[in-house]
Specification:
Strand order of the largest sheet: 3-2-1-4-7-6-8-5
Largest sheet: 8 strands, mixed
Number of helices: 11
Strand content: 15-25%
Distance between the termini: 46 Å
Number of strands: 8
Structural class: alpha/beta
C-alpha cells in the first residue's frame, strides 16, 4: 500500500518535532509517497520545522481546518492518503493495525483511537467512554445519545487513512465554520453514500495535551460546534441512521450538568481515580456554557 500523508498545522512548533519524528519511525518509508503540510498562517517556526522533516509546505489559501484539509487533499495523487494532526503521537503499531481494515467491503476510511497524555483524570475519562459504549453495552442504557455516540466513537481526523477516490467523490472534507465537527459530518456523509469507516479500538495513539485548562476550552468549542453540525446533517439529509435523536437538546444539557457530580463520583470509583469526581463536573459545565453560546449564535442568524 502506497499513500500520501497530509497535515494541517498552525503554531505547532511546540510539538511538531516530537510528533513528526514519531511519524517517521512508525510509517514504513517504502509506503509513504508524499508528505503534504498546509500551514494556517503560523506565527512561529512551524513551516521551517515541516521543511526540516522533508514535508512539502503550502500556505492555507483561506483559514481553518476544512480549508487546510481540502487544499491538502487537492495535492494528493496516491490511491490512499493519511491525515495527521500536529499534536498526535502516533501509535507504534498504527500501520500494521489500520491498513488491514480496508480488506472489508465498502471501507473508505479507517482510524485508531487516541487518549490524552494528561491530566490523568481526562485520560481515564476518555477510556471510560470507550468502555461504556463498546465493552459494557448495558451500562447506562438511558443515555439519549448512545446510538449517535457509538456511531461516531473514534472517528477523528488525526490518525486516519482514506481511499482517495472516495473522498474526492463525496466532495472532500465537510466545510465547518467552527473548525469542529468535521469528522462527525464526514462520518454521516460516508454512511449516506454507502461507505464504511472502521475504527480499531486496540490501536491507541497519544493526544498531547497541555493540561486541564486546554481540555475545558476544547469542550466549550465542541459544544459550540454541535448546533452547526446538527443543522448541516439535517440540511443534507444525512441522518439515515436515525441518530439525530441523540444530539443533545437544551433539556438534556441541563440534565447532564445537574447529574455530573453524581456521575463524576460513579466514574471515579469505576476508574479508581478520585480526581474524576472534580474534573467531570467541570467538563460538563464547560460544555454547557459552550452550548448556550451556540444557541445565541443560532438565534442571531
Amino acid at each position: 500500500m502506497r499513500f500520501d500523508v497530509i497535515s494541517w498545522v498552525k503554531d505547532g512548533a511546540w510539538v511538531l518535532p516530537r510528533t513528526l519524528k514519531r511519524l517517521e519511525r512508525v510509517l514504513p518509508s517504502e509506503c509513504v509517497h508524499r508528505k503534504i503540510m498546509v500551514d494556517d498562517h503560523s506565527s512561529d517556526e512551524t513551516r521551517e520545522i515541516g521543511k526540516d522533516f522533508n514535508w512539502e509546505v503550502y500556505s492555507n489559501p483561506e483559514s481553518g481546518i476544512s480549508s487546510g484539509a481540502n487544499y491538502a487533499l487537492s495535492k494528493v495523487d496516491c490511491p490512499f492518503f493519511m491525515s495527521f494532526e500536529q499534536d498526535l503521537l502516533l501509535s507504534e503499531d498504527w500501520f500494521t493495525k489500520i491498513s488491514p481494515l480496508f480488506d472489508k467491503e465498502r471501507v473508505a476510511v479507517a482510524s485508531g483511537v487516541r487518549f490524552s497524555t494528561h491530566p490523568k483524570a481526562i485520560r481515564d475519562l476518555e477510556k471510560y467512554v470507550y468502555m461504556k459504549y463498546l465493552q459494557e453495552k448495558n451500562l447506562a442504557p438511558y443515555l439519549s445519545n448512545r446510538k449517535a455516540s457509538v456511531f461516531t466513537l473514534g472517528k477523528t481526523l488525526d490518525n486516519t487513512l482514506y481511499v482517495t477516490e472516495v473522498m474526492k467523490k463525496i466532495g472532500g472534507f465537510p466545510m465547518m465554520s467552527t473548525n469542529c465537527g468535521i469528522d462527525t459530518l464526514l462520518a454521516y456523509t460516508l454512511n449516506v453514500n454507502g461507505f464504511r469507516w472502521n475504527v480499531s479500538a486496540t490501536c491507541v495513539s497519544k493526544h498531547i495535551r497541555r493540561g486541564l485548562r486546554q481540555e475545558l476550552s476544547h469542550q466549550r468549542w465542541y459544544a459550540i460546534a454541535s448546533v452547526e453540525t446538527r443543522k448541516k446533517i439535517l440540511a443534507k439529509n444525512l441522518d439515515t441512521l436515525d441518530c439525530l435523536d441523540g444530539f443533545v437538546t437544551f433539556k438534556h444539557a441541563v440534565q447532564r450538568l445537574l447529574l455530573s457530580p453524581i456521575a463524576g463520583v460513579f466514574v471515579s470509583v469505576k476508574m479508581r481515580n478520585p480526581m474524576i469526581a472534580v474534573v467531570h463536573p467541570l467538563i460538563k459545565l464547560s460544555w454547557f456554557v459552550g452550548y448556550l453560546d451556540s444557541l445565541k449564535v443560532s438565534e442571531g442568524e
